[in-house]
Amino acid sequence: MTESPRLCLVEDDAIMRASLCQRFKLESIDCDCFIHAGEAVDALAQRDYAALISDIRLPDMSGEQLYARLLEAGQLPPPTIFITGYGTIDQAVRLLKLGASDYITKPFDLDDLLLKLREVSPSLFEDMHEGSAELGVSLVMRQLKNTLDRLAAHRVDLLITGESGVGKEYAARYFARRCNKGDAGPFIAINCAALPEDLLEAELFGHEKGAFTGATKSRRGMFEQASGGVLFLDEVGETSPRMQAKLLRTIQERVVQPIGSEQIIPVDVRLVYATNRDLKAMVDRGEFREDLYFRVNVAHVHIPPLRERKEDILWLTHRIVDNYFHQHKARRLILPLTERYLEAQPWPGNLRELANAVERACILSPQEVLGPREFGATGEESLPASEQLSLKEAMEHYEERLLRETLQHHEWRIAETAESIGISRKNLWEKMKRYGISQPE
Q: Domain check: are 268 and 340 in the same one?
C-alpha cells in the first residue's frame, strides 16, 4: 500500500505548534511535529517527507543550520517553507538562494500558509481517503459528499432532510457548486415557512404590475431568477395545500405563470428541497400531497445530527476558530480537556448552536486558551479557575495532562510516548520530572 504523503513541522512555540497541527488535521494532512531541529534532521534522514515547515529560530540550532545540515548530508531537502520574524528575514532570503521554496513572516494567516504549502507540495492535498472533508470528517458526511457528487452529475432534483441546524442549506450550496461546475448558474434560496402564502406565491412565480395591492411594478419570480442554476426551497413541508398544488404543476411541467399574467414561462432550474419534518408521515396524515411527495423525493439524502457524528464537532469547532482568527487576527487555542467537553454535549441546535457557542467563547474570553468554562462548563469538567490562569499556566496544565494521558495510553513506554508527541526521550524524562509524573506501582 502506498504511504500517504507526510509533512514535517519544526516549531518550538507550543501554541503555534498546536495551532498549526490543529489546522493540518482539519485539512487531513498527516504531520510529524518536532521541537528541536536535530530531531527533524534525524527524521528527514529516515523517511521521505512531502514538505518541511520550520521556524528559523529554534532551541538547538537555526533553521539556516538545519537546512545546511541536510545539504551537507547529501540529502535533497523536501520543498521547504520557513517561518520567520522581522529579525530573520535576511536569513530567509539566504535560504531561498540555497534552495528553500518560500518563507512566511509572523504574524501570518493560516490560510496564507496553506496556499504556499499547496503551491510547493500539492501531493499533501491529494485526497488519500474516501471523500474529502468539505462537509465533515465523519464517515457519514464523507459518504454524503460522495453521494452529492454523483447526484450532481445527473439531471435530478434533491430532497435533503435533517433536524434544524444540521447544515441542510450548506449541503445544498455544495450540491449547487457541483451542479454548476464550470458554469456561473445562480443559487437562490427561500424559506417557505417564513412568508405568508400570498407573498410566497409572488416571490416564487413572479407577478405583473397591478396584480394585487402593492404590486407597483412587474417582478420576475425566483423560479425565473434561478434559471440555469439551483433554487433551494427550505422548509418545503410547511407549504399550504394550495401552494403544494402550484408547486406540483411547476415541478412536473417546468413552467411558471406569474400572478396576473396569461403568459406561461418555461424555466430551466435544478430544485433542492429541505425539511426537518417526516414528509411520508405527513402524507399519511393528509398534510402533504402524495403526488408532490413522489416528485420531491426522487433523490433523497439525510444529514444526521451532531450527536450522531461526534467526529465532526471538533472539525467544525476548529474551522470556526480559524475563521475567527482570519477575521480578527486574534488567536485562540482549544485545550484537549475542552475538546472532550464539547464532544460530550448533545448540541440539540446542531451546527447553529455549536457555531454560536464557539464564536461567543472566542469573543468573550480574555485569554488565548479556551477552557471548558468559556463554554459554560462547571464543576470537575472545567479547568480550576480557568478565568484566572495566565497563558503560561494554562499551557503547563495542558502539557502535563497531555503527557499523563499519552503515557497511560502507551502503558508508560517512554520511547513510544516520546515518538507519538514529537519529542526526544531525554526531553520527555525532563518534563516528567518537572511535573512530578511517575509510573504508578
A: no
